[in-house]
Amino acid sequence: MKKPVPAESSGALEKARQALGALGAALMWALMCLALSPAISRAADAGKPRTMEIHTPSSRVTFINLLCSHIDLDAADYGIKLKNLESDNNPVTQLELLSTSLRRKAADSYVVRPTDGQDVRKLIDLIKPHGMPLIFIAYMPPEEIINRYENAWFAGASNVDTAKLLAKAVTDYISAHPDVDQNLNGQVDILLIRGPVDHQDDTARYRELKAALEAAHIKSRFVHEVRGEWYYERAFLYVNKLVEKGQFPDCDLVVAFNDDMALACIDALEQSEKYDSLPDVPIFSVDGTPEALLAVRRGALEATIRQNLERIAKAVLLIGSGQADMTDKSRLQALSDHRIEDRRVLIDPVIITHKNVAPYLKQDIPVPAR
């Protein structure tokens, strides 16, 4: 026969049972919160804007500024918050800025135009362990470079296609204008205003122009080659010096490898005291910036090769927002003029002359006059 439990012992047992019940309820709540936390986190992330950092060498190149402006214009529609960083065209500084950002987990995606002389493999290897999208603009990585990282992308025009269109614009003009040889020396004397040494765009534009002139059996000579290195100020100084030395009349035609340098050439000629005595030479360039299009309309620039900034910007934002990748690329494919197979969203450029410039004048973001 069991002994009766004292009243005080019975109360203690009841309190213990209540404490265990409360502990069990707390454990159950903790487990439920743990199970729900990924969903809660996803819901919070869904409402949180993704941060995209754009790393460029300098703000002195109009084409890059315009592309960044187009990205900024549409960023909010893709749930993206932008941050722009410049490296003063210093490869070491660019790597340091990226390294600091990655260490601080400051961005969800990166858009990069490598500095001149940058080892692009280092950029890729820096970002690859973190897994976020790396999108190259105004620089098309070779296949062996872009394939180092499965989330490395390029959005823009093929540098080779752009170079071939520039060469076509020049050779077509020469073929249609036999009087282009203004100094009557039996050949077309060309002033080249080039980009940086060994830059892929400069190399492609030089190679394709030379090959096209030879293929068209056009007797020509690069009578002056100057390195504007993409910058208006530098090209202006070079052309101004040629004019002051009396060497510009040696030229029948000018080919500048970007619009900033072409506009510098136009300004140097038009601002010169010798302008009235200088030959009226056709000038060709690349990018299709608003100022260049206006120069085409008024006849100061013969032609420019326009790159479609609107579509490039949308491709960048689709990739950076996570709304497109290689498993779901239908929206990207709608922007591209070529099948996307190697994470290159290729958007074809177009030759702009006075015959077709009008529709394009209304499509670009205006930039302040110089």
Note the overall shape. Answer: elongated
Radius of gyration: 30 Å
**Number of distinct helices:** 12
Poorly predicted ranges (pLDDT <50, ≥5 residues)?
34-46
Main β-sheet, spatial strand arrangement: 2-1-3-4-5-11
Distance between the termini: 107 Å
Percent of residues in beta strands?
15-25%
Total count of strands:
12
Mean pLDDT: 88
Largest sheet: 6 strands, parallel
**Order of SSEs, N→C?**
HEHEHEHEHEHEHEHEHEHEHHEE
SSE blueprint:
Blueprint (H helix, E strand, L loop, with lengths): L6 H41 L2 E7 L5 H13 L5 E7 L4 H13 L5 E4 L7 H8 L6 E3 L6 H4 L5 E5 L2 H18 L11 E7 L5 H16 L4 E8 L4 H13 L8 E4 L2 H12 L12 E5 L2 H8 L5 E4 L2 H12 L9 H6 L8 E3 L3 E3 L18
Helix pairs in contact: 2-11, 3-4, 6-7, 8-9
Structure in words:
There is one protein chain. The protein has helices at about 5-45, 60-75, 90-105, 120-125, 145, 160-175, 200-215, 230-245, 260-270, 290-295, 310-320, 330-335, and strands spanning about 50-55, 80-85, 110, 135, 150-155, 190-195, 220-225, 255, 285, 305, 345, 350. By secondary structure, it is an alpha/beta fold. The chain has a 6-stranded parallel β-sheet, with helices on both faces. Strands 7-6-8-9-10-12 form a 6-stranded mixed β-sheet, with helices on both faces. α3 (about 90-105) runs parallel beside α4. The longest helix has about 40 residues, at about 5-45. The chain is elongated and about 110 Å long.
In a nutshell, what does this entry contain?
With 370 residues, the chain is of the alpha/beta class. Helix content is 44%, strand content 16%. The chain has helices at 7-47, 62-74, 91-103, 120-127, 143-146, 159-176, 200-215, 232-244, 259-270, 290-297, 309-320, 330-335, and strands at 50-56, 80-86, 109-112, 134-136, 152-156, 188-194, 220-227, 253-256, 283-287, 303-306, 344-346, 350-352.
